[in-house]
Amino acid sequence: MLLPQMNNSINRLQKFRTDTYDAIGLAKDATFELIDAVLTTRNAYSLADFSLSPLFRRQWSSVYEALQDCRPNRQKLMQRYIEEIPKDKDELLYVTVAIDHTLSPRVDSPTLKDRGYHHSPSAVKKVNKGHSYSTIAWIPEEQGSWALPLRHERITSFETPISKAAWQLKQVKRSLKQPVLALLDSEYGNASWVNQTGDVEADCLIRIRSNCCLWAEPGEYSGWGRPRKHGEKFKLNQQSTWWSASETVKVQDPKLGEIRVRQWSQLHFRNSPSVSMNLLLVERLDLNKKGLLQKPLWLVFIGKEMPPLEKLWSKYLRRFAVDHWYRFIKQRLHWTLPALSTPHQGERWSDLMPLMTWQLWLAKDIVKESRLPWALIPV
Fold first, then answer.
1. Could you report the per-residue pLDDT of 69-124, keeping only the tens digit for each?
2. Which tens digit of pLDDT belongs to each residue from 10-41?
3. 35 and 170: one domain?
């Protein structure tokens, strides 16, 4: 006999699969069988290998035909994903999302349309050939590595990672009534991001580089000449340009030890003087403990009302969950395995990655966790 909680989880997963089935477009059955085959196949060496799964009841050619015929509706799928986000009664609680982009390498495909040069985190090659994809993902937990993508889309040659991420954030915020806190890496910590998201009612917590320069408010107008746009310069790597912090707190973290957080208010980038930001400096005072934040961490908060410093700084650490998701879809969901002939087929294959991830998330309380023998060894 099933427990009530497990029965509710099964019904929730079944309803999710039924709703998303209608948003696939053509070739629904073949596409869903392909999804089930990917989720249950540990090792694969080509896209056709998924046709060997007992869950895929068609010929091997139907794998390619499914990606040729299906038309996942990203807007409907995103709205269905958002329905799974809890509606908290406390309006002060954020829906935390992380934004980043990654590369789908296609080095050996010289005739692939819209292929370009993109940054790669590899230690050997910093630039690689292929397609780049931008992702905005909901971070559902305060701890752990789960990241549930709401949109995962290709960055065309007519777009930049910043313009694509800004557009994705606008789409997500239109469908969300709760406050949104977006976490972004230093690539987005510039005036271009600030100017392109000025009309989006979402707060942002962004890491900025340690050699960045910010400016204070210009002060009162003297009445002579053009009004000034900038005040004193604040150089992050030159402590002589710092003035006294407006707020300082110390936090005892169980993993990182004692943390000191300092805040400077009313600063801005040079090319976005109309948008005021709060600058945060996060420093570890107990350097004997191992872990992250060995170097000082510079963050900027852009929003109407900033949460308490002792809680805000740790929110940024949840951004790394989207990096874990990138590694998961490349290693376990075989995202970069197929060498599809057109960008559109690659986009349809990529649209299935969030769909599979959400199904795994909804099924995590149904299946029994079975660890590999070497994963049971304590670290």
1. 999 999 999 999 999 998 865 545 889 999 999 999 998 899 999 998 887 766 56
2. 899 999 999 999 999 999 999 999 999 999 99
3. no
| Residue 241 near residue 211 (C-beta atoms within 8 A) | no
67 and 89, same structural domain? no
Tokens of 18: 């039924």
CA 100 – CA 16 distance, rounded (Å): 26
User: Residue 376 pLDDT more than 90?
Assistant: no
Is the same domain home to 69 and 90? no
Q: Would you say residue 373 lies in a domain?
A: no
CATH of the domain at 298: 3.90.350
Same domain for 107 and 228: yes
List, in order, residues 6 or more apart from 75 with CB less than 8 Å away. 171
Domain, as residue range, for 16: 4-73+337-367
pLDDT over threshold 80, residue 172: yes
Question: Token pair for residue 332?
Answer: 């376990």
